[in-house]
Design goal:
There is one protein chain. With 136 residues, this protein is mainly α. The protein has one domain. It is 65% helix and 0% strand. The chain is built from 5 helices and no strands. Helix 1 crosses helix 2, helix 1 crosses helix 4 and helix 1 crosses helix 5. The longest helix is centred in the first third of the chain and has 28 residues. It is globular and about 45 Å long. It starts with 23 loop residues before the first helix and ends with a helix. The relative contact order is 0.14.
Length: 136
């Protein structure tokens, strides 16, 4: 398995529930951190599946995935490295993320990586809020 010890790839403890008395702002920040962690994990897993462990290790060693949670930066890094092939990688990342979140992809419209991630972020936040209400 590739070393993901780079600071930008550290797996954050974002999957835990926010504190019971957390304000709405704290909860939102918690949701963002948890989503960033899920997205980073998905990017790393997708890159390993698509490109292999050796290429993943190279990308990590060059710092190219240090900001995997930032759609604009990841798009830029992928486009610089893979050119037009970056769109295929972005689609595969979104497909894996949607699968994890149980989102059905709608391929009837043009693909936009940032918008696809916004959909996933919204579903993720709604799901976390529903589970919090169930567990309370």
């Amino acid at each position: 398995m590739a070393d993901t010890s780079s600071p930008g790839l550290a797996r954050s403890p974002g999957y835990e529930r926010p504190a019971e008395n957390a304000s709405g702002e704290d909860r939102r920040v918690g949701d963002e951190k948890a989503f960033a962690s899920l997205l980073t994990d998905t990017v790393v897993e997708s890159m390993a599946d698509i490109l292999g462990e050796n290429v993943l290790s190279l990308l990590i060693s060059k710092g190219m995935l240090d900001h995997a949670e930032n759609p604009g930066e990841l798009e830029r890094q992928l486009a610089l490295t893979f050119g037009n092939g970056s769109v295929v990688l972005e689609r595969m990342i979104v497909k894996a993320l949607y699968r994890k979140l149980g989102i059905r992809a709608d391929s009837s419209f043009g693909f936009d990586y940032a918008k696809a991630l916004d959909v996933a972020r919204n579903v993720f936040g709604e799901t976390r809020r529903k589970w919090k209400n169930v567990l309370d």
